[in-house]
Structures are given as C-alpha cells and as structure tokens.
Design a protein that fits this description.
The structure is a single chain. The chain is an alpha/beta fold. The chain has one domain: LmbE-like (Rossmann fold, 3-Layer(aba) Sandwich). Strands 3-2-1-4-5-7-6 form a seven-stranded mixed β-sheet, sandwiched between helices. Strand 4, helix 6 and strand 5 form a beta-alpha-beta unit. The longest helix is centred in the middle third of the chain and has 17 residues. The radius of gyration is 19 Å and the shape is globular. It starts with 7 loop residues before the first strand and ends with a helix.
C-alpha cells in the first residue's frame, strides 16, 4: 500500500522506450520532487523493429524480448521511476496495402474488458492521483498505442467503481487524466525555425512540408510542465533503448540548449478531472495538492 499523503503519478505506455520519448522529463522532474512515479508498460515490444543501425545484428533480433526488457530496466534506473509490465504481447505495426491481419493473441486483439483488468488492479494497488496516457489516435496509429488509450480510459472508470472487478482490490478514483501532446505544429515549427536561425539543417523540413494543418492538436493543450533541466535525463533514458533509438538520428539533431530556450516544457491535455483544476496550468498535480493538502 502507498502512503495516503504522497503524490503518485501513473504513466501508461504501449512498449518499452515509449516512456522515454513521451513525458520522460516530466517524470524525472516529479521524481526529483519526491513524487512516486510508476510506468505501466502494456507489452514487451517483442515485435518491434531494430531502428538503430548499430544494433541491427542477427544475435540482437534473436534476443529481442530479453534485450528490450534490459533496456527498459536501464531507462527506469535513469529516470528514477518504478516500472511494471502488464504482460501483453506486442501487436507489431502492420504494413502493406491491404494491411495484413494482426497476429493472433496480440495486445490489440485482446477484448477490452480483459485487457483493462491488469491496469485496474495496478491503479487500485498504486492509487495514483494522476495518470498520463495517449489520445484517441494513440499519438500515432499503432494498434498497441490505440489499445493503450482504450484500456486507460476504461480502467479510469472501472477502477473507481466498486461493482466492477471486485476481485481486483478496493476501488480507487484517479483525480486527473492527461493525454501526451508532444508533437504539436507550433512546437515543431519553433524548433525548426530555431535550428535554421543558427545556420543548421532542420530535421523537420520534410515533416513540416507534408503536415496537414487539420491534424494539428495544439488547440487541445491545457498544461505545459516546465522541465527543461531534465531534458538530459530524458535523452539518456532514450539512448538506453539502444535497439530503438539511433543516437545520431532525428531525436538528437536539435542541440539541447536550443531546445531548452525554444520550448522548455512538455505539453499535455487534461481530459478528466474530479478536482478543481482551472486551465491553463503548469503542474499535473494542480488541484490535487490543494484537495489533499499535500505540500
């Protein structure tokens, strides 16, 4: 059981490495402030590709499950968070036209009520006041990311209801739920222009040229958490996922000092709240601290 007067943040992610690319600096900031932070990783990333050319070797592919678990453990240490796997099998990212069927038994095909059960149990055991997850598009249309959104929102409701999953512990009401809003058009443009102003080559040129403004989500941002001093921790955690992250790739092509000056926050959308939390805000625990009288 957790202490009743302790702030607790639950971050729900689809695969190992997602926690380090979405909200990692925020988590590191709260850990430094004494908040308990738990990452729930829905799958083991078993069907992920090797995205770092330096790791693209037969022996890596053969041990993908074991290696990704070890990478997750190292990233967890760097971020200072707790972490648990929910035990589902990676669905993979289907490619082709038409798309092939998803593999039997994968996370995306597990019925919603069954898929949400481990998260309900975890919520009731950890008792977070705040949960972060993905929006209805999954952040991007990977079937595991969309499924992560679905079980998160289902579990938010179910964990608080004493009539649902009574065998999984005492009910717990999460106070606030947020979606990650990392890749907005204004943020991407700001970083792009900042790089060009230094005479550098922007990694976002082609991306912005093909960006449909109708897909911008910046109007949904309610919360910007200042956490630039933890960007180096975020990057170190990312690099720990060596099969997934190329340290010479796009993630690291914008200098840290430029990122800090240009966009020093990680951004979120507040989508559920049972406390008084006027927006805009700069703290995921705004309203929680006051309601629970936590300093």
């Amino acid at each position: 059981m957790t202490e009743p007067d302790q702030l607790r943040l639950l971050a729900v992610h689809a695969h190992p490495d997602d926690e380090s690319s979405k909200g990692a600096a925020t988590m590191a900031k709260y850990v430094a402030e004494g908040v308990r932070v738990l990452v729930a990783t829905c799958t083991g990333g078993e069907r992920g590709s090797v995205l770092n050319p330096a790791m693209d070797r037969p022996e890596v592919w053969e041990r993908m499950t074991e290696i990704r678990a070890a990478e997750m453990d190292r990233a967890r240490e760097i971020l200072g968070v707790e972490q648990e796997f929910l035990g589902f099998v990676d669905s993979g990212l289907p490619e082709g036209d038409p798309l092939p069927p998803l593999p039997e038994g994968c996370f995306a095909l597990v019925p919603l009520e069954e898929a949400a059960a481990p998260l309900v149990e975890l919520i009731r055991r950890f008792r977070p006041q705040v949960m972060t997850t993905y929006d209805e598009r999954g952040g991007y249309p990977h079937p595991d990311h969309i499924k992560t959104h679905e079980i998160s929102m289902y579990a938010f409701e179910a964990a608080a209801d004493p009539d649902r999953y009574p065998e999984l512990g005492e009910p717990w009401q999460i106070s606030k739920v947020y979606y990650h809003m990392g890749f907005t058009l204004p943020r991407t443009k700001a970083l792009h222009e900042a790089v060009l102003a230094t005479g550098g080559e922007s990694p976002y040129t082609e991306w912005l040229a093909n960006w449909d403004p109708a897909n911008d989500i910046s109007h949904r941002v309610t919360t910007q958490v200042p956490c630039a001093e933890y960007f180096p921790v975020r990057d170190a955690a990312l690099i720990a996922h060596a099969t997934q992250i190329d340290p010479t790739g796009r993630w690291f092509s914008v200098p840290l000092d430029l990122q800090t000056q240009t966009w020093p926050t990680e951004d979120y959308e507040l989508v559920r709240s049972v406390v008084d939390a006027p927006t805009p805000e700069d703290d995921l625990f705004a309203g929680v601290r006051a309601s629970e009288r936590i300093a």
